[in-house]
Write a structure and sequence with these properties.
- The structure holds two protein chains of two kinds.
- Chain A is of the alpha+beta class.
- Chain A contains 14 helices and 21 strands.
- In chain A, the strands form five sheets. In chain A, strands 3, 4, 5, 6, 7 and 8 form a six-stranded antiparallel beta sheet that branches. In chain A, strands 9, 10, 11, 12, 13 and 14 form a six-stranded antiparallel beta sheet that branches.
- In chain B, strand 3, helix 3 and strand 4 form a beta-alpha-beta unit.
- Chain B is globular.
- Classes of the chains: A alpha+beta, B alpha/beta.
- At the A-B interface, helix 9 and helix 10 of A face helix 1 of B.
Chain lengths: ~500, ~140
């Protein structure tokens, strides 16, 4: 090729080397990005250190090489033509005009890049200073952002200032029953029940006047419109953001709370039913029973002493049944009330708790009680725990069938629970009854020892409402059974308000 | 002049009413008893608007909570909101031992709260109370 000399005797390029022009060399060398100078033949005549770092080639590998070796194969064919066009009308611009550009590193990897083209005139000759920025970390950040939005567990929308949907995620599409194609570039009004649409436009404008992150419609019952025409309850958070072009946007986080609302509703109904039942049991079931009891009393009075023995016997049997019925109703109420969560928490001194229980329990002479308390303190509610332990210990004593026996009480930490064991050497419980005994009014013994069938069911209810578990198992190496109670030893937000 | 103490029994269950009457007669045979089957009737009697039942002072009201038409609490609230009736002495007599009922009754200024299943000893107490009340309203007794 012919190289006419530059008129001012500066010979910046000789044999494809940028020489003798210290100033230009330094200028390019210290650019904070990869940079190279290329001539019209697409030959690289100068590179700076940054470019070597980014692409992994040494300087000598660059100089004199054809620019195309830095391009991924699929771009090479067209590149020469594009270069020709550039040199026809050289002007400063970005390469690729918004397309994703990639460079091939020495190790064969392709990295996303941005390239700026700056024509340099040297006398007759035109060169191009190409600056190259590695976009890898920017892309990583963008991908991470997109992934975190796309896979967020709650619905996400980005709405522009005119109320058009610019971005959605999969959770949002699931909540509304649309595909993202059906939503992108559509007015967000389509997701609102009709009656809110007009007013919502005004609200959106006022948000853009004073954009601050906040929850939407606090205290109101917000609903959104599903594709099937039904509304569902939502919680919505708003936060202002800007896109790449600095347009004002709103990032909307939307939580479908249908399930929660349904559960709340069911819980409310259950509670109301239980309260009603309790009330009915304590009033309506008792009143007629009292009446029957009074009538029986008067019948006895009227009959006096000369009633036939069968009649007297049967009247007495009615009496017994009335008392039993009253007891059952009382127990039912006790059981219903066991569902209330005690809210007063305190430091539980485990030994003090058992001292309390034994102060009020009569332990027969032959029964020895051993304690093995490894966890001495934790924070919980006192009364329900004491009730449960009292029930289990008094059961062990009451049902013991021999003149001597031993009861062992254990308490140890197990993960975030406190594991209590009440082990006896009594008559045991048939394995078939292990789950049955925790149900209301179930007893496994008969006669005098028989309880009311309420203690264990109340205990189970107390344990479960306070976030624990209770079970029983037969002992391996001795008679009797061991009752296990796992009781939370840390306060939890889901069981303690 | 010795005033007889009257008792207004507000109770829908005839057996319960009879039971209360029998117990009262045991401790105070000269007591004058008037019945109302629910709160609405009781108010008519208290306001002297009832066609054939009347009540003379001094009197106390024995009130059941669970009744048709107007239950015990509705009656209580009506009486406490009415300036001419709000000083009425009212005892609750109920089958329920419900804590909520109890506190709701006392917040309406009832003179006492008795559970019917424990009526025996409670009634002795009630009789003593009524006796004291009778003496309080009859300084010349």
């Amino acid at each position: 090729m012919d190289h006419p000399e530059a008129p001012d005797n500066i010979k910046p390029i000789q044999n494809n080397q940028l020489v003798g022009n210290e100033f230009l060399q330094q200028l390019i060398t210290y650019l904070p990005m990869g940079a190279m100078v290329v001539n019209t033949d697409a030959t690289i005549v100068f590179v700076n250190d940054s470019l070597s770092e980014v692409l992994g080639y040494t300087k000598t590998e660059f100089i004199g090489a054809d620019i195309d070796f830095l391009l991924p194969a699929q771009f090479q064919a067209n590149h020469k033509k594009l270069m020709m066009q550039f040199f026809k009308e050289p002007r400063k611009r970005k390469m690729g005009d918004g397309q994703a550009l990639y460079a091939r590193k020495k190790d064969g990897k392709h990295i996303p890049i941005e390239i700026g083209l700056n024509p340099i005139q040297q006398g007759e000759k035109t060169f191009v200073l190409a600056t190259l920025i590695d976009l890898t970390s920017r892309h990583k950040a963008r991908d991470m952002f997109q992934r975190s939005i796309q896979h967020a567990p709650h619905g996400v929308l980005v709405i522009d200032a005119s109320g058009i949907i610019r971005l959605t995620n999969s959770a949002l599409c699931n909540s509304f029953g649309y595909t993202s194609e059906e939503l992108i570039n559509q007015p967000m009004n389509m997701l609102l029940p009709h009656r809110y649409r007009h007013h919502h436009d005004l609200l959106r404008h006022s948000f853009h006047q004073d954009p601050k992150p906040r929850m939407m419609g606090v205290g109101r019952d917000l609903t959104a419109l599903h594709k099937d025409g039904r509304e569902f309850p939502v919680e919505i958070g708003l936060s202002p953001c800007e896109d790449e072009e600095d347009n004002e946007m709103v990032l909307v986080s939307l939580l479908d709370i249908t399930k929660r609302k349904r559960l709340e509703q069911e819980l409310r109904e259950t509670n109301t039913n239980l309260e009603e039942f309790t009330y009915v049991a304590s009033h309506d079931l008792r009143s007629p029973l009292r009446g029957i009891s009074d009538l029986l009393e008067w019948v006895k009075e009227d009959l006096g002493s000369d009633s036939p023995p069968e009649v007297t016997k049967n009247l007495d049997r009615i009496d017994v049944r009335i008392q039993r019925m009253e007891q059952l109703i009382d127990n039912l109420l006790t059981y219903a009330r066991a569902g209330k969560v005690e809210s007063i928490t305190q430091d539980i001194n485990v030994n003090a708790l058992f001292d309390n229980i034994f102060e009020l329990l009569e332990v027969p002479k032959g029964i020895t009680v051993t304690r093995n308390i490894q966890l001495e303190h934790f924070t919980s509610v006192w009364t329900p725990l004491e009730t449960v332990m009292r029930n289990l210990i008094s059961n062990a004593i009451k049902h013991h069938d021999q003149s001597t026996g031993s009861i062992t009480i254990g308490c140890s930490a197990e993960n975030n629970l406190c594991h209590f064991t009440i082990c006896d050497d009594g008559p045991g419980i048939p394995e078939a009854a292990f789950t049955r005994i925790f149900r209301l009014f179930q007893t496994v013994t008969s006669g005098e020892r028989s309880g009311t069938g309420i203690g264990l069911s109340v205990s189970r209810r107390l344990v479960e409402t306070h976030g624990g578990r209770i079970s029983v198992e037969a002992n391996q190496h001795q008679r009797g059974v061991t009752f296990h109670v796992w009781w939370p030893r840390f306060l939890r937000r889901d069981t303690h308000d | 002049m010795i005033k007889e103490l009257s008792v207004l029994i507000v109770e829908d269950d005839d057996v319960a009413a009879e039971s209360i009457t029998r117990s009262l007669k045991k401790v105070a045979s000269d007591i004058n008893i008037v019945y109302a089957e629910h709160g609405r009737t009781a108010i008519e009697i208290l306001e002297s608007k009832h066609p054939d039942k009347a009540l003379s002072s001094p009197f106390v009201v024995l009130l059941d909570l669970n009744m048709p038409v107007m239950n015990g609490f509705e009656f209580l609230e009506y009486v406490r909101d009415d300036p001419s009736l709000q000083n009425t002495v009212i005892f609750i007599l109920t089958t329920s031992n419900d804590d909520n009922d109890r506190s709701r009754a006392y917040s309406n200024n009832v003179a006492g709260y008795m559970v019917k299943s424990a009526v025996g000893p409670q009634f002795a107490k009630l009789a003593i109370l009524m006796e004291a009340y009778r003496n309080a309203v009859e300084p010349n007794h």
